[in-house]
Amino acid sequence: MKTLAKWSVSDYHGMIQAGILRDRRVELLAGEICEMSPETPIHYNTTKRGAKYLEELLAGKADVRFNGPITLSDSEPEPDITIVRSPESIYNDRHPQPQDIYWIVEVAKTSLKKDLEFKATIYASAGIQEYWVLNLSVKQIIVFKYPQNGEYTTEQKFEHGNLIPLAFPDIQVSVERLLG
């Protein structure tokens, strides 16, 4: 039987400060240091365009973070897009935590299974109210809402139309525009 060491967020921060993880694309997921999937051009461009679009829609309402870490109890993932409380200056000394996060967006092609299963469980366990996965393979957005006992209680798929985020019922997000 193989026993793996589980790392705390504090251990992970210590490794980063000590330079142990320098030049490594990793994130802490459920106590494990995991290699991040390489970004394909379409993944990067979809994420960048999506972050800019959400910044336009949410100007003055929320801060939109692009490929930045968030700190959860036993994880420090780096979601593609995270919509968090403003002002951004509150994150000068720490990364956003669950109480700061309105919703998370992951863009997936090669990482789809990890995003739909592993990360969904991590985000639901942290109490993130809403989680969107942009599935580039089939041009679809999967929306998870209402976490309970480590899983989301609703899952819906959209290929067109508008999404209305839980935190901002007055905002309509175009599915087509997010998918590029």
SSE layout:
Blueprint: H1 9-18, E1 26-29, E2 32-35, H2 41-57, E3 63-66, E4 81-84, E5 101-108, H3 112-125, E6 130-135, E7 140-148, E8 151-158, E9 162-163, E10 173-174, H4 175-179
Parallel strand pairs: 5-6
Antiparallel strand pairs: 1-2, 3-4, 4-5, 6-7, 7-8, 9-10
What does this 3D model show about the protein?
- By secondary structure, this protein is α+β, with helices and mostly antiparallel strands.
- Helix content is 26%, strand content 28%.
- It contains four helices and ten strands.
- The protein has a six-stranded mixed beta sheet with strand order 3-4-5-6-7-8. It has a two-stranded antiparallel sheet with strand order 1-2.
- Helix 3 (112-125) links the parallel strand 5 and strand 6.
- The model has no long low-confidence stretch (mean pLDDT 94).
CA radius of gyration = 16 Å
The number of E-state strands comes to 10
Structural class: alpha+beta
In what range is the share of β-strand residues? 25-35%
Q: Specify the helix fraction band.
A: 25-40%
Order of helices and strands: HEEHEEEHEEEEEH
Unreliable segments of 5+ consecutive residues: none
Counting H and I runs of at least 4 residues, what is the number of helices?
Answer: 4
